[in-house]
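Reopening closed ticket. The problem is back. First fold of the pair:
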Amino acid sequence: MSVMIQIAGVRKRFGRARVLDGVDFDVLAGQSVALWGSNGAGKTTLIRCLLGLIDFDGEIRVAGLDVRRDGKRVRRLLGYVPQELAFYDDFRVIEAARYLARLRGADVAECEAGLADVGLLAHARKRVRELSGGMKQRLALSVALLNDPPLLVLDEPTSNLDSAGRRSLMELLLRLKAAGKTILFISHRPEEVRGLADRVLTLEAGRVLTDVATPRLHGTGDEGDRSTIEYAPTAAAAAEIRRFA
């Protein structure tokens, strides 16, 4: 199986603060990998490095392409869904999709099919402001999937959703994984990690503390799973992460 993401010796400072401190890991094509850790562990900064949004020391490759030297080609290979969505509320759903498709250099003609894939075609004429949080996440995912990228990068995609919205989005992500998409995502919800991830990487103080496999479960990350994990720093994190296995 080919390697989709290669991260080697990645370091990042903001002033005197060392946010990433020698991060190393690979993600195979078709794998789903969760980034887990406390706030400030470096998860979102690592995603921003992968997207080429900030400079860093070390090396990151996507499908063999260097994210700094081949940034434009790399961005065509991935779809990104941020934690905080920013749409023009007055746009109709189909207008928003077409506008963002043009910005991405994607085929505008694919937008209706993209909305259908995420169950939004029936809402295409609604204003964005009329959509629920879950529908807005589906809209963001439909845009991320334009040009059919092999890699999806998600930064806490369910953080602002209710239980029904989380379940619906997780079901969609599981279908995308089954279709062969590689997924790298951040989540603070253990039930989502167990339901979607093949591996869990725990970050602490900018380093990968643990890298463990998760069992293949059939859950969809709803609130019916009442298990909780309180993130514990330092040595306790290694024991805590074993609860995924």
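Second fold of the pair, where the issue appears:
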Amino acid sequence: MELEHAGAYQLNAGSDRLLFMERLRTLKELYQSQINLIAEFASSFAEERLQGPLLMDPTTYYHQPTKLLIVGQETAGWSSKYENVEEQLITYRKFNLGEKANSPFWNITRRIEEQLGIQPLSCAWTNLNRYDQAGKPPAGMVLQALPSLDFLVLEEIQILCPDVCLFYTNRKNDHRLTALYPGLQFSDIEGLPSSLFARLTHAELPSLTLRTPHPKWMQLKRWSATFLATFQRLSNNASND
């Protein structure tokens, strides 16, 4: 399957490994350049038991014919060595994209990988909220301050150049997405409730970019099967364009 990413170029066999290593290095350089700011954020909320930050180190992502990026909301427990980039990258690799998890988030992601014809555990994953709060969603002053780190998501997407991007960020975070991407357009998706699901259009995002509720909510409301069927239709249409 070949899906169009605005501004991105397709890899070929000869350049795949070289570009893979280059972008991993660029990603790490991004984190190293911002680690003081990231660590200062955690230090400023020292009593709030922040866990993170989530920093990406995808391993098989660049070797896939279709590159899938998942943007979640926050972790549910993570390494708290917030000043150590290498420790966070090790934690990311050990977690291995929910390899041992049995949760709606990772179960539906495995299904999406299957529908796209890519290997299991081959997406890239980041979160809008760089930290969780004692293993739970951030709240209060922490939540109010977290958008100051949202620029990292923008930078990650620019580096990764995904073909497909799924924001499991819920409509409650749409204001943060529009702050990152001025002029971002939200359009209805046939077969899914317009108040909950949207297709996102912006020059800096892949042509197939969706914003959805959290997969746990989809499961509770019995929307998972409909969402997966709709995603299959959309991805098939995109590959035929």
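Update: turned out to be a display glitch only; the data is intact. Residues 16-44 form the longest helix (29 residues). Confidence is low (pLDDT under 50) at residues 4-11. Please close again.
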